[in-house]
Design a protein that fits this description.
It is built from 7 helices and 9 strands; from the N terminus they run αβαααααββββββββα. The protein is an alpha+beta fold and 338 residues long. The longest helix is centred in the first third of the chain and has 25 residues. It has a single domain, classed as Sandwich (Jelly Rolls), CATH 2.60.120.620. Bound molecules: 2-oxoglutaric acid and fe (ii) ion.
Length: 338
């Protein structure tokens, strides 16, 4: 859907289809390029750390971001995605577990154009929900494989974002915002959505479900027999565009079979006061028409919230302990029988 500039049209399209793609939301020069520069420094830090630990043979400082990260992943055979993410793992967080909540990332979270569209969809009291990720996906043929033969970082299995939050958020009007720092043509592995699927229920998400055929991968996913998967459509897009998606829209992403990096952010927002469904992690008021003084404007405070969260997490959910639950799913549902 191109050039949906009129707010009313955006909202109508979203209500009908469960997603809407809007062009020219984020300015590449002032919003996206600074994020890329920030991540170049994060990668530089990672290389220094790995070099000191003798896990890589060189700092590879002469390489551009894409080639440098591919080198690191291949030489270590490991995926350092968590190092770049503005999020934390659910288990085994240590006092020094790395994450990245930098100012350029924060600026994207509170971007005016982006929040204007979010406001159109959920109103003017907007909380930035802490379910949020950066996904840096090199071309699959340049990555090492995991024990099952899948590329270390690959396509995303079928799911609904409602399925990744706890039951306390069942009444929350959470929406997902997905955008890419680079152009994402079909071959680079864009998001794939099933239009209209948000009108159905929350579907069962099964752990390591083998009935999805060649799309099987070890991760919690919706069996394809439960929805009209053949109606799924890929949403290739240019950098600067953004997708706004309903929490029940069934989606996945395609593999990156291009020769370029596929590098996206996925953010969530919900009306302030509603449960985020990930209560251990910090949300913040991104916009408030009624109480503008409650808006968080300072990226340092945001980073501090995650530092505090990391400290708390380092005392819980260690090894086999399950003090705070992050998943709503129990195993053994009949839908999950192959
Ligand atoms: O980008 C991806 O691979 C998956 C993103 C996703 O599932 C989301 O944005 O909710
Ligand atoms: Fe998702």
């Amino acid at each position: 859907m191109n050039s949906l500039t009129k707010p009313k049209i955006i909202n109508e399209y979203f209500q009908e289809n469960g997603y809407v793609l809007v062009e020219d939301v984020l300015d590449p020069k002032t919003v996206l390029d600074p994020i890329i520069s920030e991540y170049e420094k994060v990668l530089d830090n990672l290389c220094k750390e790995l070099y000191e630990k003798k896990e890589i043979k060189s700092l590879y400082s002469d390489l551009e971001f894409d080639e440098r990260i591919i080198k690191v992943y291949n030489e270590t055979g490991k995926d350092y995605a968590y190092y770049f993410d503005f999020h934390l793992p659910f288990k085994n967080v240590k006092p020094d577990t790395p994450f990245w909540c930098g100012p350029a990332v924060f600026n994207a979270l509170i971007n005016k154009n982006l929040l204007d569209i979010v406001e159109e969809l959920i109103g003017g009291e907007i909380t930035s929900n802490p379910v949020q990720h950066v996904r840096i996906k090199p071309p699959e043929n340049r990555l090492p494989k995991d024990e099952d033969g899948f590329p270390l970082i690959g396509a995303t299995i079928w799911h609904q974002d409602h399925g990744v939050v706890t039951e306390d958020a069942d009444e929350t009007d959470m929406i997902t915002v997905w955008f890419s720092l680079t152009d994402t043509p079909v071959e680079a592995g864009p998001l794939k959505v099933v239009p209209g699927s948000h009108k159905g229920d929350l579907l069962t998400h099964c752990l390591d479900y083998e009935g999805n055929g060649k799309e099987f991968k070890k991760a919690r996913q919706i069996p394809k027999k439960l929805f009209q998967h053949e109606e799924g459509i890929p949403l290739p897009m240019k950098r600067g565009s953004a997708i706004f998606m309903h929490k029940r829209t069934v989606h996945s992403s395609l593999p990156n079979v291009s020769n370029r990096m596929r590098w996206s952010f996925d953010l969530r927002y919900n009306p302030t006061g509603q449960n985020t469904g990930r209560s251990m992690f910090p949300g913040f008021v991104a916009r408030s028409r009624n109480y503008p003084e409650s808006e968080l404007k300072d990226p340092v405070l945001w980073n501090n919230m995650w530092l505090e969260c990391r400290e708390k997490m380092s005392h819980i959910n260690q090894d086999d302990s399950d003090d705070v639950k992050f998943s709503r799913w129990a195993d053994g549902h009949p839908d999950c029988e192959v």
